[in-house]
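Input/output pair, single chain:
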Amino acid sequence: MNVIGRVTDRLHTAKTLVETGIFRPTRPDKLLRVGLTLQKWGPTPAAGYTGSAIRYPDETAIIDELGTLTFREVHERTNALAHALSDAGIRDGDGVASMCRNHRGFIDATVALSKLGAHCLYLNTSFAGPQITDVVNREKPVAIVYDAEFEELVHDAGVRRKRFIAWHDGGEKPKDPLLEDLIGQGDPADVVPPSEKGRVVILTSGTTGTPKGASRKQPESLEPAAALFSKIPLRARETTMIAAPMFHSWGFAHFTLGMGLSSTLVMRRKFDPEATLSLTAQHEATALAVVPVMLQRILELPIETIQRYDLSALRVIAASGSALPGELATRTMDAFGDALYNLYGSTEVAWATIATPEDLRAAPGTAGRPPRGTIVKLYDSDGRPVTTPGETGRIFVGNEMLFEGYTGGGGKDEIDGLMSTGDVGHFDRAGHLFVDGRDDEMIVSGGENVFPREVEDLLHDHEAIDEVAVIGVDDEQFGQRLKAYAVKTRGKQIGEDDLKAYVKRNLAGYKVPREVVFVDELPRNATGKVLKRDLLEQHQNGS
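Output:
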C-alpha cells in the first residue's frame, strides 16, 4: 500500500474511533496513563481492562449471575489471579485450556493469562470427554481452567496437568483450587508486562470432523476494530448482552470489542430465550450478540411474552456463527426493528462480509459486503477469478485478522494472498455476497452441481417448517441426491410429498430431495451450527 493510502486508512480509523467514543475528552493525566498502557501491552485483554480501570474505575464492567464488578475490580482481580497463577507455575509462553461458560471467571482467566503472556486455548462446552482429551493431548496446555460442572469431562485430560475451577455452584468444595480463592490470596499490584504477548487459540466448529485449533496473535493496530465499528454501530460505554458463547469466535469477538469500547458486558451461563430478553431489557442493553438459532428460539416465544420486555434501547442485534436464513432475518427485524447485523466469516479468516439491516431488507439471505480493509474474491476450481454476477465460486478473503495456521500444522488454501473460507458463494449485481454452501457439501446429481443451502433456504421459507438441514446421500440412479431433515412449525401439518412438490415448483427437478424426514430437533453444536455428520450417520444407520 502506498503512503497516501496508508495515511487515508489511519485517518479513517481515527475518525471511526472518535465516532464510537473510544477517543473522547479525557483528563490529560489519565490520557497519558492509558497511552502508556497501550504502548506496554498492545491491543490485548490486559490493556483493555487496565485502560478502562484508569478511565472508568468505578463504572460497571461485568454483570453476571453473581452480581456486578467495576473496571477497577476486574483490573485488581486479574492482577491478583495473574500473580497467583505465576506462583502456581504458569509462565509466559505456556498454554492454558479454558472450558468455561459465559461468566466472570471466563474473563478473569482470559485477562490474567494475557497479563502473564500465556496462551489461552478455548474448549467447547458441548464437547464430550474423549473430544476434550484428544484436543488437550494435541495442544498440550500445562493447565486447565474449567467450570465445576465439567469435572468428569475434563478428568482424563487433566491428568498430570494443573487444574483450576472458574465457577462452582456451591455444596461440597471441590478438590481443585477455585479462581476466587486464588484471587483472594493473590497480590492485586500491577503485573510486569511479559516479553511476548500471549495468543488465543479458538477451535473450529468441528461440524464435519475433529475440531482444529486456530492460532491467532493479537492485532497490531486498532484498524480491524474500526472496520467493524464502521459497519456495526457499537458505541463506547454502552451495554452489550453477550448470549453467544464466548469460547467461540463470535462471542469472543464481542468480548474483545467490548474491552475496546469499555462496554458493560451482561452474561448468563446458559442461554434461555426469555431470560435473554429480560436481561437485555433490565439492563437497557444497546447491543445483543447472538447466533442465529438463538433468534429462532426467541421468535418461538408467544408474542405476548416478547412484547412484555422493553427493548427500546436495543440498537444492534449482532448475529453470526452459522447461516442466517433470509426469512429469519426478516422476522427478526419485523419483531425488533431494523437493528439486525449479520457477520459472515470463519474462525480462520475472522470476518469476510457484514450485512446491514438495509442489505438484509434489500436482499434477504445475503451475507453482506466486505468492510473496509477486507477483500473478498471468488475463484473457480482451477483457481481462476469468478467475476460474473450470479456465478458460483470458492470464497477467498484477505484482511489483517487471518489466522496464523492450525496448531497441529497446516492451514487453509490460499490464492493471490487470500485465504479460503471453505465455502462457495456468488455475488448479485448489487455486490451482495450470498453463501451457497460448504465447498465439500456440493453434490453431483445426474451430472448437475447442487448445493444444499439453496434447498434449505427455500424449505425454511415454508410456513410449516421451523428448521431444516439438507445433506447429500448416495443414489444408484443419479449418483447422489439430496435428503432433507425438517422440524415442523408448532401447530402446522405438512407431508413429505407436499414438501417435495413445493421444491419442484420453485427449483429444478434435480434439486428435489429424494426423501424428507421429519424430526423433533436438529443436532447442533454450541454455536448453533447443524452437525451434518450426525445426520449422515443417521442416514447410514437407516434413519
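The CA atoms of residues 20 and 109 lie 28 Å apart. Residues 441-540 form a domain with the GMP Synthetase; Chain A, domain 3 fold (CATH 3.30.300.30).
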